[in-house]
Task: structure prediction
Amino acid sequence: MGMFDTILLEKVTHCTACGALIESLQTKQFGQHLEEYRIGDIVEPSPVITGIITEQIFCPKCRSSEQTVYLTIWQSLLTGIYDNVESAEKDLLGIDRSDLLSHLLRHQRSERMWSRRFEKLYNELTQYHEYEQDTTEGKAADHASLRYLHITEHLKQPDPLASILENHNADTEEFFEPQD
Ligand SMILES: [Zn+2]
Result:
């Protein structure tokens, strides 16, 4: 089957054939579950517990797949992506506790951000549901009522539900992950 996983490249990478910007690569070596991985993620399942695996970058622009990258895996953790095997070997030998902590910190921040996003969306949708019920039951649905505190601004829009959903779009800046 044509299933694969995607690995996001964190370093700016250009196609060696045509110069196009490459942001990710696809691999069939990680279980082919359509997962998205970044450096610092545990790869499940990993073809090696600790070691280096090679992969080709496919350029969507010129369709070249000549470029080789070296992925370093330490205890199933993707620790780096390198364009030469010497750097990859050096990375593997130099993994230390502070590297692991920084990966842990990023995952903790990400988990908290998604948890906050979910809570906010849930609260807003709950209030919108109450607003709709109140309206259906013929109660005076005052936009400024404290019952709809979280969605006052959205209720002023022609389509409040669309406005709530748009505000929770994953691309909305408000929710960008804090940078180190
Ligand atoms: Zn190219």
User: Anything to note?
Assistant: Residues 144 and 152 are 6 Å apart (CA to CA). The chain has two domains: 5-94, 97-170. Residues 97-170 form one domain.
